[in-house]
Amino acid sequence: MTDQESKPTTSFSKKFPLWLQIIVGLLLGCLIGWLWPKFGASLQPIGTAFIKAIKMIVIPLVFSAVTLGIYRMGSDIKQLGRLGLLAFGWFYIATGISVALGIGLNAIFHPGAGVALQATGSIPQNLATSINWAKFFLDIIPDNVINAAANQKIIPILFFSITFGLSLASAGEKGRPVVKVLEGVMEAMFKLTKGVVATAPLAVAGIMAWVIATQGGKMLLAMAKLIGTLYIGLIVIMLIFWVIVYFMGHNPFATTKKVMEPLLLAFTTCSSEVTLPVHMQILEKAGIPNKVVSFVIPLGYSFNLDGAALYQSLAVCFLAEAYGIPLSGPALITILITTLIANKGTANVPAASLVVLAVILTSIGLPVEAIAILAGVDRFMDMGRTTVNVFGNTIAAMLLHKFGGKGVTDEA
C-alpha cells in the first residue's frame, strides 16, 4: 500500500477515533431497540460473538503478560512484595470508601422507602450465602492449569503465572527461550486484540439494541430511584478518582479520554474481563511499564471492584428499607465489614456480586430471595458499576506506578 492510499484511513481514525465510533454505535443501538424492538432483540448474537472473541484472548494474554512481568521483577523480590502490599492496601481503602458511600447515599435518599416488593427476576439456584474460606484459598491453587484456563478462572491462572514467572527468573539463561516464546505470544495477543476491538462499534450497537428491546421500559421506571441513587454514587466515586489523578500531576479529563475505549466497552458489555486486553495495552502506551500493568490490572479485575462495592452496600440497605427493617448502628457496621470481606472473598466465584449480596443479606437476617427484586433492572446498574470498576483499576495502576514502581522499566 502506498503512502497516498494509507492517508485517508489515518485521517479518518484521527477525526473519528474508536471511542467516538463506539458512542455512535451505542446511540444507534438504543434507537434501534426503541423503535424496532423485535429487530433489536434479534441482534444479540452480534454482541455475543464480540464478547466471546475478546474472552478468547484474555487467558493467553494474562498468562503471558503476568509471567513476563513477574520474570522481569524476579531479581527484585522486595519490589514485587512492595507492589503486592500496596496493591491490596489500596484495594481495601477504595472498597471501604465505596461501601461507606453506598450506606451514606441510602441514608440521604432512601430509595427503598414505600417500595412495593415484587420479584422482577430470578436468582441462581443454590446461591452461596456464606464464604467457605478454606475452599476460597484452595481454589487459588489450580490442580489442573488447563482446566482452569478452559473455565476462564483468572485467579488460579494468576497464581500459576506468578509462580511460573518466579521460576523462570531463577532458571537464568535456560529460561530465555521460554521468555522469547511468551514475548511472542503477548505481542500476538495485542495484535489480535486490535483486530477484534475494531469491530466494537458494530458489537456495541447490537448489544444496546438487544438491551433496550428486551429490558427497557416499565421495570426501569419502577426502580428509577434506586438506579438514580446508584449513579449519583458512581459519579461521586469518579470525582474522587479525578481528584487523586489531579494530585498525582495528571489531567483528569485527559486520563479519562485515554481509557475511554475500555470504559465504553465496560458500560455496554457489563464485563470487566472483556476490557482487559484493551485496557492493558492503553496503559502501557500511556507510559506505565508492562511490569506494573501486567501485575496490577489482572489482580485488580478480581479484587478491586469499587463500583460493585458501592452497589452491594446500597442494594442491601435498599432491600432492608423496602422490607421495613430499621438499620441500626450495629447493622450498618455489619454491612460495612461484611461487604469489605465478601467483596474480596468471592473474587473467584461465579455470579460474584449476587453471592456478596446473599452473604450480606444472610448476615443481617434478610431473605436471600430479596435479590430477585433487583434482578430485572440489574443490567442497567451493572453497566455503571462495571465502568467504575475499570476506571478504578486505572487509578490503581497509576498509584502503584508512582508510589510502588519507582525506577521500574521494561528493560531486561
UniProtKB/TrEMBL annotation:
PROSITE patterns on file: PROKAR_LIPOPROTEIN
Locations listed in the record: Cell membrane
Keyword Transcription: no
Pfam families assigned to the protein according to its UniProt record, in alphabetical order: SDF
Entry membrane topology: Multi-pass membrane protein
Chain segments annotated as transmembrane: 16-37, 49-71, 83-109, 154-171, 192-213, 219-247, 323-342, 354-377
Matches recorded under InterPro entries: Na-dicarboxylate_symporter, Na:dicarbo_symporter_sf
Record GO terms (molecular function): symporter activity
GO biological process assignments: dicarboxylic acid transport
Key words of the record: Cell membrane, Membrane, Symport, Transmembrane, Transmembrane helix, Transport
Cellular component annotations (GO), alphabetically ordered: plasma membrane
Name by which UniProt lists this protein: Proton/glutamate-aspartate symporter
Species: bioreactor metagenome
Gene: gltP_1
